[in-house]
Amino acid sequence: MNKLKEKAKELLSSRAVQVVVGYEEGTGGKIRPAFVSRPEDADKLLYNADCHHNLALYLYKHETKRIGKMAVVAPPFVLRSILILTTEFQLEEDSLVVLGVTPEEELIEFANFKEIETWVNQHPIGMKEKDREMLNRLNAMSRDERWQFWQNEFSKCIKCFACRGTCPMCSCFRCTVDYNAPQWISVGSHQLGNFDWHLMRAMHLAGRCSVCGQCGEACPMDIPVHLLSFQINEDIFKMFGSRAGLTLKKESLLSTWKSNDVENFIR
Amino acid sequence: MKLIKKEDLPGLYGYLASAGKKIFAPVRKNGMVSFSFTSAFEEIEMSYIQTKLSAKAAAFPKIEKLMKYTIQKEGQSYEPYDVEKFPGIVVWGAHPCDAAAFHPLNAVFTWETHDKYFTRRLENLLIIGLSCTSHDEFCFCTSVGVHPGDTKGSDIQLTPLPGGDYLAEIITTKGEAVAAAVPALFSPAPGLNKEELVTSVEKRFDHEALHAKINGMFDHPVWKEQALRCIGCGACTYVCPICSCFDIQDEGGIFGGLRYRCWDSCGFGHFTIHTSGHNPRESQDTRWRQRLMHKFSYQPQRQEVFGCVGCGRCSRNCPVDMNISEHLTQIMAV
Amino acid sequence: MDQFEPKIVAFVCNWCTYAGADLTGTSRLKYAHNVRIIRFPCTGRIDFLLLQQAFAKGADGIIVSGCHPNDCHYTSGNFHARRRWMVFRQMLENMGVEAERIVFSWVSAAEGAKWADLVNETVESIKKLGPYHKYQDMAKSLEEWEVTHE
Q1: In which residue ranges of chain A is pLDDT below 50?
Q2: Does a structural domain hold residue C62?
Q3: In-domain check, residue C92
């Protein structure tokens, strides 16, 4: 990844950007997001298959925006997230330099977001084998077994909102769960409060999820919350033939409609 | 100093359970070790480095129901939950960091107001400590004045011996009462140096020096730099054995409901937001600063306790590796 | 044993189904009394959180109904709603919720008889399914919370 380091150095020394958002080695063998604003620090940047954080999260935060113009190290799921955030008016093309990195760890430079759109359409992201297996297991269950599975998983939830905090699509300044008039979701981490929270979150991500799986990675209690989004993503593809993060057209699934949407359950 | 044999440990468990105590112990479930109420000795994991959640829930549960209320034409009425009904709880196998954490927690809950829910739960606790024979790179107890063999907070302290038996130190009168009830389980200890049995955790900084330094760092740029990657979740505070912030909520319908308190976190953006919309801690660095300043500046100043026992849970569980000991070491260096 | 009388909450739009239900009454058509009607400006306004709340507060079944496609007073509210329900129903299935307890329908202001049939059929089908204990038990989780649940 020397090319990435060189590019970052170049961008920072020429003052083309003020900060490069990327990955670095953390503590205890973990990888973590890094913010590099001096060319000499660019050497700590790295990229490999273990880089799971979705850095698109930082691109609209006022804490990072106030540093100045950003460059971001963008694996495929970050590229998709960038497209989604752009269609949702959270990002502007000229505020960002995108340093794409392929799963083969090669650097790709994008001149504009249109090129990102073309690239992500040519390079579909496969689901991890582990997640595919889990989805197959869930689909093979009876509905009661699925209920039991999720009840058991949610019983671990402590409502720390790491799943929300780490998700770039959770860009709302004020989340539904933070509203108290009316109080849609119980604040306490009891079974109903946990269930309502996860159902609400999964619904609000339906059709907008870039399928990075970071919510599941972030969960300190190891709840596979990402599977809810992964599964509905598959279902949505079956129903509507679309996946999020592949287009710059401003047509988010649940804020648009077609008169010929095919359903079979309305009497 | 006494000895309790490996095969006698279930006897101690059995005595406590038969005395009506609820046992809160490290249990391996769903692939992680966490403090959990258990009804079988076999479930207990005695050789763990650190549990996922701390033992604080035994006295400060994630939900504490405070009262029931009804609203009727005739007026309102409420009925507080009866602290007399709180069960006796044994925190079994708490490492010295967890055992020591109840003291600073208590300092918060008895600071200005004597919180009857917390204090009653604490009174009902019996803590069986477990000295550490291993640690990992996230442990830093020695840097904050706790030692892997410390007995502070424990009523009885167990120290594992290589053969599987345990040294047992009876620390408090509560502990003495237990030992007196089942004397057959305890035998005289062989002449051993406990120091040689426990692990040695490298000291990374001195907490008194840190306290002296951090007091004047409110406006230091280090917070902005450190907190950039913080995602503003509450994972660190919820796994922390000392973090004590809570929210109070009413849940119910038109004619009544119940009031409870639940964990809350200074990491959340909306934690300090005013009704006006103004937020005195408007960016993540001010929230991160609050977390560290609270633990190492305000709490020592006002309550004469440190808000950290070096268990390292926050660092282990942080989704973006906000490693607290790394950050504190950095603060000492700037 | 007393026969189980399900509680059914109906979320209906103001312009079509509410008027349709009104017509059922003025036409003197009798239908099952198990339904509690909640009027909304449009099906587009019926947030899925309302449906969650209804189950949590003890509903055994839910009816959601509004204008037929192309009849929406606001042109496209029901089209938005339709997509939302397509996704929401699937989401409920994925999480193990009994999605057939939510009945979706289009009932126009002229379809008083259809409303009566819809309610009667829904009541019948929910009676067969029985009370939704699973969800209701979950909703009691706070009331039944004990420290030993940690």
Answers
A1: none
A2: yes
A3: yes
